[in-house]
Amino acid sequence: MERLIIEAKDLVKTYGEGEGLTYALNHVSINVYEHDFLVILGGSGSGKSTFLNMLGGIDTVDSGEISVYGEDITQYNDKKLTLYRRNTIGFVYQFFNLINDITVLQNVMLAPGARDKERAMALLERVQLAEKKDKFPRQLSGGQQQRVAIARALNKQSEILLCDEPTGALDDASGKAVLKLLEEIHEEGKTVVLVTHTREIAGMATRIITMRNGKVVKEEMNEHRIKAEEVEW
Fold first, then answer.
1. Domain limit, last residue, from 106, 130, 157
2. What pLDDT digit, counting tens, does each position of 80-104 carry?
């Protein structure tokens, strides 16, 4: 087992109150190890995306701890959380979160500290979209937009990549292209945490955690990993 880099302990997140109280996370504990390709599997309302948002410093917990490289990010103030999101993690969203009135290249260079044009162009080459650098996101297909979003996340040079249903809005061919890119990124040494409702994608994982109703119900090592091109859904 690689070294432990994220330790989430006893996380609780609720919405509403009284009889309307709902647990988004109900005492969830999950570890992430260096060079994991961790897939968190679950249906709508299972808590998987809520958990990912906690890891990404996008949402806050009601109680519990999230230790990342030995520091509890639940104790960070707004300034430290901003630096954490900027420097420690990259985030890939289901619906891309690109800015439509700036170019593809400008989107990749958007993150503070990621304004090197040559590096941004190299990343667009990497995701096979260099020729689209002057296009606007609305002029691209869904799969192309997701690859731009991955290039933007990689431009931050963080070691941890969080992916929230990265193929959820894509057709099969585009989805496989995105999964292939994530596979390559993992093989190059990055830690990937991917949440999905698609069981077949979990076949790529080094570890699989299944969530239901805000709880972890199963954790397993994957002894028979498959390649991105073998995923069918």
1. 157
2. 998 898 889 988 887 778 999 999 9
